[in-house]
């Protein structure tokens, strides 16, 4: 068999992995969205602003952390600004824009975090054994390096 081809078992495990992730992630996002009105993108922006920037980040750093292109993030931030979740300010020192979480954005994130945590526990963590967690951790660490 050619090294560039997958056999049936390899394709099956790949599809199982993708499908499992998509189902779990979809359940978490659905529960969060139903309870808070935030989209996956909204949560990603707000969470990164707090986690990586203590409430503010350069727009390009935010785009890089989300693996989004500049245009996609800009359009999303425009929608979030209209809802009062973030604001953007030009940087004084150089070209660039700083994205800042508002008090409404922080409140929305604070409301979403326990819902997300509960959904992750319900749809993922509660289904795992200690050995599963060790295996997933090892796999995640190994594949992060590739």
Index terms:
HTH_MarR-typ; DNA-binding MarR family transcriptional regulator; three-stranded antiparallel β-sheet; 146 residues; DNA-binding; 9% strand; mainly alpha; 3 strands; 6 helices
Number of helices: 6
- Mean pLDDT across every amino acid position: 94
- pLDDT below 50 for ≥5 consecutive residues: which ranges? none
What Rg, in angstroms, do the CA atoms define? 19 Å
- Tell me the distance between the termini: 23 Å
Q: Please tally the β strands and state the result.
A: 3
- The ordered H/E elements are HHEHHEEHH
Q: What percentage of the residues does DSSP assign to strands (E)? A: 5-15%
| Helix/strand/pairing category | mainly alpha
In spatial order, strands of the major sheet run 1-3-2
Q: Which shape, going by the Cα principal axes?
A: globular
Pfam family, one: MarR
Protein name: DNA-binding MarR family transcriptional regulator
GO molecular function: DNA binding
Organism: Paenibacillus shirakamiensis
